[in-house]
Amino acid sequence: MNENLKNLRLENGESEKDIAALLNISVSEYIDKEKGIISTTNGEKKKLAEFYEVDLEKFKN
Q1: 2-56 — its CATH code?
Q2: CA-based angle 57:36:50, to the nearest 5?
Q3: What are phi and psi of 13, to 5 degrees?
Q4: N or C of the chain: less Cβ packing under 10 Å?
Q5: Where are the domains of the chain?
Q6: How far is 28 from 21, CA to CA, in rounded Å?
Q7: One digit per residue, pLDDT tens: the chain, 61 residues?
Q8: What angle do CA 36, 42, 48 make, to 5 degrees?
């Protein structure tokens, strides 16, 4: 999941700050999610799938 998350962000030219704002979390918390230190919630996965216009399955572990 975290690898997909980082790759999608980079492919779309988004910054860590942009996605943290989308998820309404701190940049450091988002970075920890990308690294796999903190799990991404189902609600966050849904927001990300909608934002990137990808299937929610892309975010399944």
Answers
A1: 1.10.260
A2: 35
A3: 70, 25
A4: C
A5: 2-56
A6: 11
A7: 567 889 999 999 999 999 999 999 999 999 999 999 999 999 999 999 999 999 888 776 5
A8: 75
Are 16 and 30 contacting, i.e. CB atoms less than 8 angstroms apart?
yes
Phi then psi for 39, rounded to 5 degrees?
-75, 150
Place of tokens 């943290």: 20
Please count the other Cβ atoms lying within 10 Å of the Cβ belonging to residue 49. 16
Give the chain as a 3 state SS string.
CHHHHHHHHHHCCCCHHHHHHHHCCCHHHHHHHHHCCCCCCHHHHHHHHHHHCCCHHHHCC
Give the number of other CB atoms < 10 A from CB of residue 35.
11
pTM beyond cutoff 0.85: yes
